[in-house]
């Protein structure tokens, strides 16, 4: 559908009608492009819902959605430029006496259409981004599946390759293989033992630092917990003595065998505890 052929003012009769006709034709052309892209995106989404592996792979290979997103960005740039220019055109035309009021209202409506068109283009761009993200996740899933199958095959054939490599290697020229000393007969066994020792040494080089770091971290954590517990006990002990010293009164007998602890508000009451005398708690 071509909106320019069905414009409100197909044949302008004045200069103001001509300006409105040009702006209206421009906005209608942009509307046609956006509508075409939206219809194409709807068709592609339906195909993706019904399609399978071949269709998704073809869309990824053709880079269809990145191209659509690039076209939308160019279209958005044109719309943003028109959104900046057309209000200035309206302001300048409104100051002219020969520009009709109806045409000013028509320009305002066209500017509103252009803004709504910009919002629609942003919504379409978000849809394209979402569909592309779905295809990227599907591609990543397919790659993970292939890597899983490849690792499974490597697990099957790795022992075979190790066995064929060990029993098919040439030990000539290696020390302790009997090439120079005819008394040594077990050259292959010596090479295998040497390989085992080297492997054990490499494993030791990787494991010992990790174990040492674990032990050091455990000792630091234990020392930190011990210091926390000691500080907590000291704080509790000090607070309890301070509270007792400030809230209670202590009475001892003459032989310091019995003690009576009473609140400070009872200090004026006569306490009988043998021959009691008051002693400050230290």
TrEMBL record:
How does the UniProt record describe the way this protein sits in the membrane? Multi-pass membrane protein
- Keyword Membrane among UniProt keywords: yes
Keywords assigned by UniProt, alphabetized: Membrane, Transmembrane, Transmembrane helix
Q: Name one GO cellular component term.
A: membrane
Organism superkingdom:
Eukaryota
Q: Which GO terms describe its molecular function?
A: metal ion transmembrane transporter activity
Q: Name one Pfam family in it.
A: CorA
Q: Tell where it localizes.
A: Membrane
Signal peptide (residue range): none
Looking at the UniProt entry, the stretches that span the membrane are 147-171, 191-217
- Cross-referenced SUPFAM superfamilies: CorA soluble domain-like, Magnesium transport protein CorA, transmembrane region
PANTHER family, per database record: OS08G0130000 PROTEIN
UniProt-recorded name of the protein: Magnesium transporter
Origin organism is Camellia sinensis
Native organism taxonomy: Eukaryota, Viridiplantae, Streptophyta, Embryophyta, Tracheophyta
């Amino acid at each position: 559908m071509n909106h320019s052929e069905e414009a409100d003012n197909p044949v302008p009769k004045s200069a103001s009608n001509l300006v409105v006709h040009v702006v209206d034709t421009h906005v209608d052309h942009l509307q046609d492009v956006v509508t075409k892209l939206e219809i194409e995106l709807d068709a592609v989404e339906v195909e993706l819902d019904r399609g399978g592996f071949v269709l998704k792979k073809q869309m990824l290979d053709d880079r269809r959605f990145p191209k659509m997103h690039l076209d939308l960005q160019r279209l958005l740039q044109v719309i943003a430029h028109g959104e900046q220019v057309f209000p200035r055109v309206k302001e300048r035309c409104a100051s002219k006496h020969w520009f009709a009021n109806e045409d000013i209202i028509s320009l305002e409506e066209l500017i509103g259409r252009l803004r709504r068109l910009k919002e629609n283009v942003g919504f379409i761009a978000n849809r394209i981004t979402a569909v592309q993200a779905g295809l990227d996740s599907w591609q990543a899933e397919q790659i993970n599946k292939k890597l899983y199958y490849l690792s499974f095959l490597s697990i099957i054939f790795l022992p075979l390759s190790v066995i064929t490599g060990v029993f098919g290697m040439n030990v000539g020229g290696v020390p302790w293989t009997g090439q120079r000393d005819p008394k040594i007969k077990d050259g292959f066994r010596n090479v295998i033992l040497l390989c085992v020792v080297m492997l054990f040494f490499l494993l030791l080089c990787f494991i010992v630092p990790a174990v040492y770091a674990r032990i050091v971290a455990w000792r630091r954590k234990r020392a930190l917990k011990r210091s926390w517990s000691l500080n907590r006990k000291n704080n509790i002990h000090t607070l309890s003595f301070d509270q007792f010293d400030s809230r209670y009164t202590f009475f001892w007998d003459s032989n310091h065998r019995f003690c009576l602890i009473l609140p400070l508000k009872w200090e004026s009451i006569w306490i009988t505890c043998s021959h009691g005398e008051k002693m400050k708690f230290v």
